[in-house]
Design a protein that fits this description.
The protein is mainly β. About 5% of the residues lie in helices and about 35% in strands. Strands 1-8-7-3-4 form a 5-stranded mixed beta sheet, with no helix packed on it. Strands 9-16-15-11-12 form a 5-stranded mixed beta sheet, with no helix packed on it. The longest helix has 16 residues. The radius of gyration is 26 Å and the shape is elongated. The chain starts with a helix and ends in a 5-residue tail after the last strand. The chain binds 2-acetamido-2-deoxy-beta-D-glucopyranose (2 copies). The site of one 2-acetamido-2-deoxy-beta-D-glucopyranose has 6 residues, from loops.
Length: about 220
């Protein structure tokens, strides 16, 4: 009886000790919008980790929450044996990831996700002058064009003193706007076509962190110049 209990324990222990995880912290730097692949491999490639779970802690000092229990990652996680693929990274994914196996062994990954920083200077609006009927590209971009901001808006203001109106909510621009961020996530520029004098005023590109870039657009009428 005792003998068989010991034997079972022995088998379980050898099984769990078969896989050793590297003790080192792996540091990973990504841009928002990218994917990250975390690999929880045993130091000996012939062994396999048993009962592997992935956990997250923002500070790295706990509490450690299983990633499957967090709404934050809904539809963005894929597991395959020892791999965890996390896609469409946002700045909120920053923190520490831990793969834990049996016998309290674990390996930690430190993930930093770089968000969008708008390029150029903020102090004075960019001045752009075009003739009515033409198109204009209102420039706005993240310093890293592969970075996808969590959200961004373009707003219009005739005088720079009254309320800012989201361009997408204005009938004035219907069918005359084009964005390019689907192909280049960090390119937030707005192309306006068939300009009229009514389009003259201030345009503001803004991201969630509160950074903005202003453009002052002058549209010359046909009569003029
Ligand atoms: C896991 O990944 C391996 C190779 O990386 C692949 O051959 C296998 O089909 C994948 N399994 C699942 C369930 O996706
Ligand atoms: C953004 O896309 C437009 C249209 O393709 C292009 O003209 C512009 O140069 C791009 N901006 C940046 C910063 O790449």
């Amino acid at each position: 009886m005792w003998f068989s209990v010991c034997l079972v324990n022995l088998i379980l222990l050898t099984g769990s000790e078969a896989c050793r995880l590297p003790g080192t912290l792996q540091t990973i730097v990504k841009s928002a919008g990218q994917s990250v692949l975390l690999l929880c491999s045993c130091t000996d490639p012939h062994t396999r980790p048993a009962s592997l779970i992935w956990e997250f802690s923002a500070s790295g000092s706990g509490p450690w929450v299983p990633v499957t229990q967090s709404d934050l990652y809904r539809n963005r996680l894929e597991f395959n044996e020892t791999k965890l693929l996390l896609s469409h990274l946002t700045e909120e994914d920053r923190g520490f990831y831990r793969c834990r196996i049996r016998n309290q062994q674990f390996r930690d990954f430190s993930l930093s996700v770089q968000g969008c920083t708008l390029s150029g200077q903020q102090e004075t609006p960019i001045e752009i002058t075009v003739s009515s009927g033409q198109s204009v590209l209102l420039p706005c971009s993240c310093t890293d064009l592969q970075t996808r901001p969590a959200s961004f808006t373009w707003r219009f203001n005739e005088e720079h003193t009254s309320a800012w109106v989201p361009v997408t909510q204005s009938d004035l621009y219907r069918g005359r706007m084009e964005l390019f961020n689907e192909t280049t996530p960090g390119n937030l520029s707005l192309l306006l076509s068939h300009l009229t004098e009514k389009d003259q005023g201030y345009y503001r590109c803004g991201i969630r962190s509160g950074q903005v870039r202003d453009i002052h657009l002058t549209v010359r009428g046909k009569r003029c110049c």
